[in-house]
Specification:
Strand order of the largest sheet: 1-7-2
Structural class: alpha+beta
Number of strands: 15
Strand content: 5-15%
Length: about 625
C-alpha cells in the first residue's frame, strides 16, 4: 500500500512531456526557418546567375547571327554581281562594235609610240654634252702663268714655293680593284681584245679575295692599288726626277684690244688678233715652254730678265726654259698622255694603238678617235722612265700581267687659250660663257620630257588603250556590272582625263624647253655665222651644238607640240560626240532603257533569290529583337 502510494506521486524532477515536445518543436522550427532562409537565398542567387548566363548566351547568339547575316549579304551581293555580269554580257552581245572609238584607240596608240620615239631621239641624238661646253669654259676662264720653278725633293709645290704655285701637270692613275689570281702563269701576250675581259673575269674573280680552298690550289690574292697622282718628269735617260711648279695669276682681260688696254692703263701683251691686257704690276704671261740641251737657247741666260723668260739647268746638260710675250696666246693647260695625241674630249685618257689597257684598272683607257690639235708636244719620254720618275715601278711586281713597256712613249703637252676673233669679244663672249653655265637646263628639260612621255606611253598607249579597245569590243567589266548603261563612257572619260592631264604636263615642259633652247640656239648660231673661233675642236663643238639644239631638241619638240595640239582638239570632238550620243555605244537613251529593263525584272534563274532575301530580313529583325533588354 505504501509502495502504491509512493508510485502514485509524480517524481519531482521529471519534465513535462508536452512542454518538452513543444520546446523541441520550437527549436526544430527555428532550424527549419534558418535553413529555409538559406535555401531561399541560394535559389535567388542561382536565379540571378541564370539570368546573367542567359544574357551572355543571347548576346553570343546575337553576334553569331549578325556574322551569319553579314556573310549571307556578302555572298548574296557576290552572286548578284555575277548574275548582273551575266546579264551584262547578254546585253553586250546584242550591241555592234563601236568602230569609231576603235579607230580612236588605234590613233592614240600610234600617237603614243610616235611621241615616245621623238622624245627618245631628241634626248639620244645629243652629240654635245655639258662636259664639252665646260671644257671650253674652263679653257677661256683659266688663269695664266707668269712664273715656273722646279724642285727635286718636295713634290708638293704649295709647301715648297707658296699657295700660288701648283704642279704644271697632274696625271691621275686610276688604281685597280682586288681580285683572286688563278691563272697560273698564263701568257698574257696571247690575249686579244675579244678574250681579255673573259680571261680576267674567269681567272681573277674580280672583287673578291682568295678563299683557303683557292689558296691551296696555287691561287693568290691581288691586292687593290689606290689612285695615284703622277706629277714628276725626267730627261728620258734615267735622269733625276723633277716637278715643275707654275704660279698662276688672275686679272687677264682677253676681251680688250690695244686701245682699250691703254684706256684702262694696263699693259698690252701679244699682237694682232691675240692682243690682251694685264695689270701694271704684272708681267706678260708665259706663252712658250720647252726642254733643250743648249744652255744658250734664245740667249735667255745672258738676258737674265724674268719678264722675257728664263732657263734652268736640270742636271746632265738638260735644260728647261720659258718665254713670255710672243705672238701666241698664253699657255693655260697641260696634259700628260700615252702616245702623241690628246683626245678631243680632253678628260679622256688615250692609249697607244694596238695596246690593251690593264683589265684590273678601275677606269680603262681607250684609243682616241679624234684629237685636240691645239695641244702641242713639249717633251716625250718612254713608259719606263715615266713610272721611274714617279716612283711606281713596283706596280709591275704587285699586279700580275701589268706591263710597263719602254717601247711606249708618254708625252707632256701644252695648250693656249682658245683663239677668239676680236669682233666676237665683249658682250657676245660674255653671253657664250653664261649660256655654257646654264646648258644643263636643256638636258634637264629633255630628261623631264622623256620621263613624262614614257609615263604617257605606259598609261595611255598601253593600259588605257587596251582597256578602251576591249570595252569598244563589248567586253563586260565586272566592276561596272551594276551600271552597264554607263560602262563605256565611264571608262572612256577616265582615259580622256588622264590623257589630257599628261598632255598638258608635256606641253608645259615643251614650252619651257622652247624658251630655254631658243635663246641658246640663236647665240650659238651667231657664233658660227660670225666665225668667232678658229680652233677646230671648238668649231666642231659649236657647229654640233647648234645642230643638236635646232635639229633634234627644237624640231622634235615642235613636232610633239603639233601632235598634242591636234590630239587635244580630237579629244574635245570625241567628248562632245560621247555626250551627244549619250549612253553605251552611242545608242539612244530610250532604246537603252527598254533593253535594260531586263536588269530590273531579272531572269528566271534569279527568282529563287527573293526567298533567301526575305529569310535574311526575318533573321535581321529577330537579331534586332534580341538586342532589347529583358
Amino acid at each position: 500500500m505504501a509502495d502504491q502510494e509512493k508510485n502514485l506521486d509524480p517524481p519531482l524532477e521529471q519534465p513535462d512531456q508536452e512542454q518538452s515536445l513543444l520546446q523541441n518543436a520550437q527549436e526544430n522550427g527555428q532550424v527549419f526557418e534558418i535553413d529555409g532562409q538559406q535555401q531561399t537565398q541560394k535559389d535567388s542567387d542561382a536565379h540571378q546567375a541564370g539570368r546573367v548566363l542567359n544574357n551572355v548566351k543571347h548576346q553570343d547568339d546575337h553576334k553569331m547571327m549578325r556574322r551569319d547575316i553579314i556573310k549571307k549579304k556578302k555572298k548574296k551581293e557576290k552572286e548578284n554581281k555575277l548574275i548582273s555580269a551575266r546579264r551584262l554580257k547578254r546585253l553586250l552581245r546584242k550591241k555592234p562594235i563601236d568602230k569609231i572609238r576603235l579607230a580612236y584607240q588605234a590613233y592614240f596608240f600610234i600617237v603614243s609610240i610616235t611621241v615616245l620615239a621623238l622624245s627618245i631621239l631628241s634626248y639620244r641624238d645629243q652629240t654635245v654634252y655639258q662636259v664639252d661646253y665646260q671644257q671650253f669654259i674652263d679653257n677661256v676662264k683659266s688663269n695664266v702663268i707668269d712664273d715656273i720653278r722646279f724642285t727635286y725633293t718636295n713634290k708638293n709645290c704649295k709647301t715648297q714655293f707658296g699657295s700660288s704655285y701648283q704642279s704644271i701637270f697632274e696625271y691621275k692613275w686610276p688604281g685597280t680593284q682586288i681580285g683572286c689570281d688563278c691563272s697560273k702563269g698564263f701568257d698574257f701576250s696571247s690575249l686579244t681584245d675579244y678574250n681579255i675581259d673573259a680571261f680576267f673575269s674567269e681567272s681573277f674573280m674580280l672583287g673578291r679575295i682568295c678563299s683557303q680552298y683557292l689558296l691551296q690550289k696555287n691561287c693568290s690574292t691581288v691586292n687593290e692599288q689606290q689612285q695615284k697622282i703622277f706629277n714628276s718628269w725626267n730627261d728620258g735617260i734615267f735622269g733625276r726626277p723633277f716637278v715643275l711648279c707654275a704660279r698662276r695669276q688672275i686679272g687677264i682681260d682677253l676681251q680688250s684690244n690695244q686701245s682699250n688696254c691703254q684706256l684702262q692703263n694696263k699693259i698690252t701683251c701679244g699682237n694682232g688678233d691675240n692682243i690682251f691686257c694685264v695689270p701694271q704690276d704684272m708681267s706678260c704671261p708665259i706663252t712658250e715652254i720647252g726642254f733643250t740641251t743648249n744652255s744658250e737657247y734664245q740667249n735667255l741666260k745672258q738676258q737674265n730678265n724674268s719678264n722675257k723668260g728664263d732657263i734652268f739647268d736640270l742636271g746632265a746638260g738638260f735644260y728647261f726654259y720659258y718665254i713670255k710675250n710672243t705672238s701666241s696666246l698664253p699657255l693655260v693647260e697641260f696634259r700628260v698622255t700615252e702616245g702623241d695625241k690628246v683626245c678631243r674630249r680632253n678628260s679622256d685618257q688615250n692609249i697607244s694603238p694596238n695596246r690593251i689597257d690593264y683589265p684590273l684598272m678601275l677606269s680603262r683607257r681607250q684609243l682616241c678617235e679624234n684629237n685636240d690639235p691645239l695641244f702641242q708636244i713639249i717633251h716625250s719620254i718612254d713608259e719606263e722612265q715615266f713610272y721611274l720618275s714617279n716612283n711606281v715601278i713596283y706596280l709591275s711586281e704587285k699586279l700580275p700581267y701589268f706591263n710597263i713597256d719602254a717601247k711606249f712613249n708618254w708625252t707632256l703637252n701644252a695648250k693656249t687659250f682658245i683663239p677668239w676673233s676680236p669682233q666676237c669679244r665683249g658682250e657676245l663672249f660674255d653671253q657664250v660663257l653664261q649660256e655654257g653655265d646654264t646648258l644643263h637646263y636643256v638636258y634637264t628639260s629633255l630628261r623631264v620630257q622623256l620621263g613624262v612621255t614614257i609615263t604617257y606611253f605606259i598609261v595611255i598607249g598601253l593600259i588605257f588603250n587596251i582597256v578602251g579597245t576591249m570595252t569598244a569590243c563589248n567586253f563586260a567589266w565586272s566592276c561596272m556590272a551594276t551600271r552597264p548603261e554607263s560602262q563605256y563612257n565611264y571608262i572612256f572619260f577616265i582615259e580622256i582625263g588622264f590623257k589630257i592631264l599628261l598632255q598638258i604636263a608635256e606641253i608645259i615642259v615643251i614650252i619651257v624647253s622652247f624658251a630655254i633652247i631658243d635663246g641658246k640656239r640663236k647665240i650659238i648660231k651667231q657664233i658660227n655665222d660670225d666665225g668667232c673661233v678658229s680652233d677646230p675642236v671648238s668649231g666642231y663643238f659649236f657647229t654640233n651644238l647648234e645642230s643638236d639644239l635646232t635639229k633634234f631638241a627644237w624640231s622634235y619638240n615642235l613636232a610633239n607640240l603639233v601632235i598634242f595640239a591636234v590630239t587635244l582638239i580630237l579629244d574635245l570632238i570625241i567628248i562632245k560626240h560621247s555626250i551627244n550620243k549619250g549612253h553605251h555605244h552611242g545608242a539612244k537613251k530610250l532604246q537603252e532603257k527598254e533593253e535594260h529593263q531586263e536588269l530590273d525584272v531579272g531572269s528566271p534563274g534569279e527568282s529563287g533569290n527573293s526567298q533567301q532575301i526575305k529569310s535574311d530580313l526575318k533573321l535581321q529583325v529577330k537579331a534586332e529583337a534580341l538586342q532589347t533588354p529583358f
